[in-house]
């Protein structure tokens, strides 16, 4: 019961704070030094260096749509003339942020399912006798399944596959060398949700012929995102025809760094271009290629196909950015702790607009609005 009694008595107590004024110059100077250090930190580091009065956002939301234009005619000794338009040389053709442009190819037409000799280029397909070609075994890294025969004429196993297998060499000069003059239109839309700021890299104009005749120019046509492929590659420091023969990879970076305190006309895209693959001439890893096939049916309803091994340039479009704008409350809070000292200052400075607020333990001496967290 004594516990309850003490509790009720304590309810009737009046509690207040007791301030101690220490008329001690050393402590006084120390206290002012603390304040100066905090102020120096805020003005020097937070304001001047980190620009802490600005709020940043790096969570950019973006969409990229691409479109290529240009047509060329190739003339190969095996299959004759072939007209290439964007539907044929852009893979995939649906205007993606990452896409591949065919600049060179090996075509193996009229392949049918059947039996033929494995290519001599495949080590596992070579043989001395039939014993090297076990029936039903797959040729490792090859084109088909062994039938058990070793063919004298080629020195390789007979296989069940799409025949004949690919045997041509890569043309040393790119077949689609004219791709240098193809153009790419890159439409980029960005948004920063926190500031509800959005912009596009295409000029907002009612002149619908503008995009048909303009081409990108850093000074005069910054908002005309139409680039010649040859220029894109040359800006990475490489030669287009050299890259076109074996293939390669190019990165296009669109950077949006904006200070929203300034006019929105000051917020402009910056483009940069880099080569992303290994550029060693002799290295077997250099270049970029892959294969695909187109399937057809003959009069007798039998499927046959044309195999393409395509070499080309892969473009990756990357969008980065951040915006900053004047912020109402400063998040950085400076604390000064010295709990051993009776004059301990637990200070917190925060900013509402340009007004400075200064809090100690329990009291806020303030010249502006006081956010709740400041008194914690
Ligand atoms: C295509 O090449 C062949 C020889 O390989 C040549 O006879 C023919 O004239 C060429 N056609 C064109 C349109 O260049
Ligand atoms: C392949 O060559 C070997 C010896 O050189 C011979 O015995 C064999 O009959 C040949 N096979 C064919 C299919 O010509
Ligand atoms: C690209 O166009 C220019 C000017 O029209 C022309 O001189 C050049 O030969 C073309 N390049 C290729 C690879 O066709
Ligand atoms: C790559 O080869 C081309 C010609 O084939 C040559 O001009 C260039 O200097 C070579 N580059 C390097 C890095 O070896």
From TrEMBL:
Binding site for ATP: 67-69, 183, 289-291, 309
Transmembrane region(s): 29-48
Keyword Cell membrane listed: yes
Membrane topology type: Multi-pass membrane protein
Any one GO BP annotation for this protein: calcium ion transmembrane transport
Residues modified by glycosylation: 181
Main location: membrane
InterPro entries the record matches: P2X_extracellular_dom_sf, P2X_purnocptor, P2X_receptor, P2X_RECEPTOR_CS
Record field: catalytic activity: Ca(2+)(in) = Ca(2+)(out)
Sorted UniProt keywords: ATP-binding, Cell membrane, Disulfide bond, Glycoprotein, Ion channel, Ion transport, Ligand-gated ion channel, Membrane, Nucleotide-binding, Receptor, Transmembrane, Transmembrane helix, Transport
A GO CC term assigned to this protein in UniProt: plasma membrane
Keyword flag Magnesium: no
GO terms assigned for molecular function: ATP binding; extracellularly ATP-gated monoatomic cation channel activity; purinergic nucleotide receptor activity
Domain of life: Eukaryota
Entry's localization field: Cell membrane; Membrane
Cysteines joined through disulfide linkages: 116-163, 127-150, 133-157, 214-224, 258-267
Annotated family: Belongs to the P2X receptor family.
Function according to Swiss-Prot or TrEMBL: Receptor for ATP that acts as a ligand-gated ion channel.
PANTHER family the UniProt entry points to: P2X PURINOCEPTOR, P2X PURINOCEPTOR 5
Name of the protein in question: P2X purinoceptor
Annotated organism of origin: Sander lucioperca (Pike-perch)
């Amino acid at each position: 019961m004594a516990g309850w009694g003490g509790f009720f008595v304590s309810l009737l107590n009046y509690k207040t704070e007791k301030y101690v004024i220490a008329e001690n110059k050393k402590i006084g100077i120390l206290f002012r030094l603390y304040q100066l250090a905090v102020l120096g930190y805020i003005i020097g580091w937070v304001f001047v260096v980190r620009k802490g009065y600005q709020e940043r956002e790096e969570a950019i939301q973006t969409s990229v749509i691409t479109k290529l234009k240009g047509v060329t005619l190739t003339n190969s000794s095996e299959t004759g003339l072939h007209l290439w338009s964007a539907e044929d040389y852009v893979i995939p053709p649906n205007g993606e942020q990452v896409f591949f442009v065919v600049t060179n190819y090996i075509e193996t037409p009229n392949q049918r399912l059947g039996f033929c000799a494995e290519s001599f280029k495949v080590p596992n397909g070579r043989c001395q006798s039939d014993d090297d070609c076990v029936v039903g075994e797959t040729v490792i890294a090859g084109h088909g399944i062994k039938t058990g025969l070793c063919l004298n004429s080629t020195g390789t196993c007979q296989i069940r596959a799409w025949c004949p297998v690919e045997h041509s060499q890569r043309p040393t000069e790119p077949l689609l060398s004219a791709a240098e003059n193809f153009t790419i239109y890159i439409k980029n839309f960005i948004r920063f949700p926190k500031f509800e700021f959005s912009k596009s890299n295409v000029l907002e104009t009612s002149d619908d012929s503008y995009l048909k005749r303009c081409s990108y120019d850093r000074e005069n046509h910054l908002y005309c995102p139409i680039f010649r492929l040859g220029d894109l590659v040359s800006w990475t420091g490489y030669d287009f025809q050299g890259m076109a023969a074996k293939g390669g990879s190019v990165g296009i970076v669109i950077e949006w760094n904006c200070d929203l305190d300034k006019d929105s006309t000051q917020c402009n895209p910056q483009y940069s271009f880099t080569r992303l693959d290994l550029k060693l001439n002799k290295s077997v890893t250099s270049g970029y290629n892959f294969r695909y096939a187109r399937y057809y049916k003959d009069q007798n309803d039998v499927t046959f196909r044309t195999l393409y091994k395509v070499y080309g340039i892969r473009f990756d479009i990357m969008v980065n950015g951040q915006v900053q704008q004047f912020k109402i409350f400063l998040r950085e809070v400076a604390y000064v702790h010295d709990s051993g000292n009776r004059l301990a200052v637990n200070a917190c400075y925060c900013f509402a607009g340009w007004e400075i607020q200064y809090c100690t333990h329990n009291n806020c001496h303030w010249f502006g609005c006081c956010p709740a967290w400041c008194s914690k």
